[in-house]
Design a protein that fits this description.
Number of strands: 2
Number of domains: 2
CATH class of the largest domain: Mainly Alpha
Shape: globular
Largest sheet: 2 strands, parallel
Helix content: over 70%
CATH topology of the largest domain: MetI-like fold
Strand order of the largest sheet: 1-2
CATH superfamily of the largest domain: MetI-like
Strand content: under 5%
Distance between the termini: 71 Å
Radius of gyration: 26 Å
Length: 552
């Protein structure tokens, strides 16, 4: 018997290519502010955590959880109910309401807060009219709900955030089989039973995802809760950092806020895994809308109009009225500078964010299956982090880097360049990129997934390099998705308030910060033009989104 050589040739170590290294570098940039916050929290200059825990943390945490509970319940009920009505029934106005219910996405929650207080407060139009009609003289003559309260904040946040649930739930209801509802009705189920036993269980994963998005925005909100004098974890970051001057304590509060978000995401993902529903492989029959006649139809119209009216009509009407009463506010130089700053910072951030997302996803796809499995969920944490958390994680290391750069340039040239990063809009742009990278990443990843892998394989077989395949095959086919991602990120940058407030240089305003500054000084007439411009930009994006939905 001859001896066979059983030795196996050693496997060569495969070095990562430039695309993979680029994807890892982008991931490191996105994660750096979050890691910075964690480092500062565990290495504070002065550890005030025991003091925070004994004094303000219970109040911050309790109020944050109260807002999350209220917003979660209201947005889930309103968004799901409205989506069910416009999908399953025909009633007066159901056609235009199905699109109008998306419009509150264009209105930042803090603008809704300014409008609500202006309209419902003691000196607002509603109470002034009531006193004129009834002869009441003072607040002691009648009862009216307290406007600057946590409950009003819950209403405003819910009116601004319910479209997240509405959009996802409506899509889920549309994708369900009309035969399922017909069978349920044939078995004697009424409208409520059909919704509770058939529609809701099938749409539950989408509803849970929408509620998770709404709750993340609730935790991240600053402008609304500040206007209503509600103390949350986000306001605690501002107070501890800017008022008390303790960055370590602010980072510790930011760590708690991040912990709440991560726990929320974990619960949502676990719930989605346990609630998987698969459609039939055969082509399903679309849902046929049932007519609602008489008072039921008008009741459905009213129920759908109320969130649209509270989330869009009221803020736009109040701001438009102030804008028309103060025409001089439209020609103030500060408004033009804020508009230019918003367009430049938001446009630059949107372009960088989407470009980085394209390179990131393509690099991960070039790397194989192992790397994307663990790196994709981690880089999505940027969107989950509140703007105040990211600002804290960016400002301190960037300020240190700024001083080193300035000292080095001064030593080499004798010229002091000043603060290049934190003294300009560069820090704001970087915060926007990190904050909204998860949105662009998700859109781009889905666009890559819709392209058959045979096309790039054929291009590579013909000798085209990886860069040419991306430029000549992928990008032309993803043009629509990339354009929509650019638009969505730009609109979110325009509305972003906490990160901009903390990172902006001296005498630098965007439309969002100008609105907040003037409204906080009760100068709503001067703030109205900036608020209307913010809403106008958002409305363009929502209109394009609705147009794309209508083509499906």
């Amino acid at each position: 018997m001859t001896e066979q050589n059983t030795q196996v040739a050693p496997r060569r170590l495969r070095l990562p290519d430039g695309w993979t290294l680029g994807a890892v570098l982008i991931a490191a940039i996105v994660l750096a502010p979050i890691l910075s916050v964690i480092w500062i929290a565990f290495h504070p200059t002065e550890n005030i955590w025991p003091h925070l825990l004994a004094t303000v943390m219970p109040r911050y945490m309790g109020m944050t959880l109260l807002l999350m509970a209220g917003v979660g319940v209201i947005t889930a009920a309103v968004g799901t109910g409205a989506a069910w009505l416009v999908t399953l029934y025909r009633f007066p106005g159901s056609g235009w309401l199905s699109y109008a219910l998306l419009f509150p996405l264009a209105v930042p929650a803090y603008v809704g807060a300014y409008a609500l207080v202006d309209f419902f407060d003691y000196s607002g139009a509603l109470q002034v009219t009531l006193r004129a009609l009834t002869g009441w003289k003072t607040a002691a003559d009648y009862w009216f709900p307290e406007i600057r309260s946590p409950w009003a904040a819950i209403v405003v946040l819910s009116a601004a955030l319910y479209p997240y649930i509405y959009l996802l739930a409506r899509q889920a209801f549309r994708e369900q089989s009309g035969g399922s509802y017909e069978v349920a009705r044939a078995l004697g189920s009424g409208p409520w039973a059909v919704f509770w036993r058939v529609g809701l269980p099938l749409a539950r994963p989408s509803i849970a995802a929408g509620v998770a998005l709404a709750l993340m925005e609730t935790v991240a909100d600053y402008g609304t809760v500040t206007h209503f004098s509600v103390q949350t974890l986000t306001t605690g970051i501002f107070t501890t950092w800017l008022t008390a001057g303790n960055a370590g304590g602010a980072a510790q509060i930011a760590g708690v806020a991040m912990g709440v978000i991560v726990l929320l995401l974990a619960v949502e993902r676990i719930g989605r895994r346990r609630a998987r529903f698969h459609g039939s492989a055969r082509q399903i029959r679309p849902v046929a809308a049932q007519p609602l006649r008489g008072w039921r139809g008008w009741l459905a119209s009213l129920l759908c109009f109320l969130p649209f009216g509270m989330g869009f009509v009221l803020p736009v009407a109040v701001m438009a009225a102030h804008g028309m009463r103060n025409p001089q506010a439209w020609i103030e130089p500060g408004l033009l500078r804020a508009l230019v700053n918003t367009l430049v910072a938001g446009g630059a951030a949107a372009a960088i964010t989407v470009a980085a997302a394209v390179l990131f996803i393509y690099g991960l796809r070039m790397a194989g299956r192992g790397l994307p499995r663990w790196i994709l969920p981690v880089t999505a944490l940027g969107y989950a982090a509140p703007g105040a958390v990211l600002a804290l994680g960016l400002l301190i290391p960037l300020a240190a880097l700024d001083h080193r750069l300035a000292d080095g340039i001064l030593a080499l040239t004798g010229h002091d360049p000043g603060l290049l990063l934190t003294g300009s809009a560069a820090a704001i742009v970087l915060a926007y990129v990190v904050r909204f990278f998860g949105i662009a990443q998700g859109a781009v990843d889905a666009a890559f997934g819709r392209i058959s892998p045979n096309l790039p394989l054929a291009a590579r077989a013909l000798g085209r390099p990886a860069g040419a395949v991306l430029r000549e095959v992928y990008l032309p086919m993803m043009r629509g998705s990339v354009g929509m991602a650019l638009l969505i990120v730009f609109v979110d940058c325009v509305k972003e308030l906490p990160a901009t407030l903390l990172l902006r240089p001296f005498n630098y305003n965007t439309l969002a910060t100008r609105t907040q500054e003037l409204a906080s000084l009760e100068k709503l007439g001067q703030a109205a033009p900036a608020a209307l411009l913010v809403m106008g930009v958002g409305l363009v994006a929502v209109a394009l989104m609705a147009r794309m939905e209508g083509r499906r």
